[in-house]
Amino acid sequence: MSFELYYWDGLQGRGEFVRLALEEARADYIEVVRGKSSEGGGTGAMMAVLDSKDEACPPFAPPFLRDGDLLIPQTANILFYLGPKLGLAPADENLRYVANGLQLTIADVVTEVHDTHHPLASGLYYEDQKDAAKIRAHDFIDTRMPKFMRYFERVLKQNPAGDQHMVGDALSYVDLSMFQLIDGLHYAFPRATKHFGEHYPRLAALHDAVAERPNLSAYLASPRRLAYNETGIFRHYPELDKATR
Fold this sequence. Notes:
By secondary structure, this protein is an alpha+beta fold. It has helices at 15-24, 43-50, 75-86, 93-117, 130-158, 173-188, 196-199, 201-211, 214-220, and strands at 3-6, 29-31, 64-67, 70-73. It folds into 2 domains: 3-86, Glutaredoxin (3-Layer(aba) Sandwich), CATH 3.40.30.10; 93-240, Glutathione S-transferase Yfyf (Class Pi), Chain A, domain 2.
């Protein structure tokens, strides 16, 4: 039976972190809003689950994943579940909690990226908060992004199994998510990340190595990989970007 992934149509967003794991593992899955599933297809099928009075605990928001009778919300939670099933989690159970902690930290960065263009309220248009967004984005570029990236670079450097993976000695979903985070930052802030590889060589090497994996490379070149756009989390507004040394 196929995994059923629920996320907004036309957006990479948080759903992309799950897609990358499914694609790398060549898992059998259905993108419900873009296709058909046991719930039908389209956005209506997703909203029916969100608004369901039959689910014991319906998800608050997408992404969420259905595996048989099990409904799993939240990106990091989905990946914690999928990792062992897809061969994308450390064999050592203790390291699986380390992986989950890193994934949750990635989620923290993603939230801060979102807040660079929506610093006041998610319900307001970007155009209604551009001045505040510029202040928030420049603080993110100058302070928050370097703090997070220095941490992730140090995690790679201090990995006892070597600096090719975020945790353990083999590819995990955390490596895939780190690729997506770095890739999204390059799209949103091309000037700020121009010298990314000079400052964070291990992270840059990880990003490139993931992109070159055969399954991921094929996915990235396919129509299944949605393009970045200015309705997602990673948005490129030139006025929010700035050059760094």
